[in-house]
Specification:
Blueprint lengths: L9 E10 L5 H12 L2 E6 L5 E7 L1 H11 L7 E9 L8 E4 L1
Helix pairs in contact: 1-2
Length: about 100
């Protein structure tokens, strides 16, 4: 009987600063997260930042983090604040209002 190694799930929360609203940042993030097989969400914050919460393997979260520092073509990312977060199960990666 063979068993697959269990992949440990981790979670991160990022708050992205700069010109990140109105430039397709949420759609960009959703596409990248889906390609990486991550669950979670992305949403605009009232203060002009974008919040990203993602769950998945550490290496995939690191890859997403790197992409958040650049964003889509029209974005201008001034900074990304990252913190560990509690793991919550998500069936997919969604855009929240």
């Amino acid at each position: 009987m063979s068993t697959k190694p269990r992949i440990t799930q981790a979670a991160r929360r990022w708050r992205v600063r700069g010109r990140v609203q109105g430039v397709g940042f949420r759609y960009f993030t959703q596409r990248v997260a889906a390609e990486l097989g991550l669950g979670g969400y992305v949403r605009n914050l009232d203060d002009g930042r974008v919040e990203v919460y993602a769950v998945g393997p550490e290496e995939k979260l690191s890859e997403l983090a790197g992409r958040l520092h650049h964003g889509p073509r029209w974005a201008e990312v001034d900074g990304v604040d990252e913190q560990e977060a509690e793991v919550t199960a998500y069936a997919s990666f969604e855009i929240q209002p």
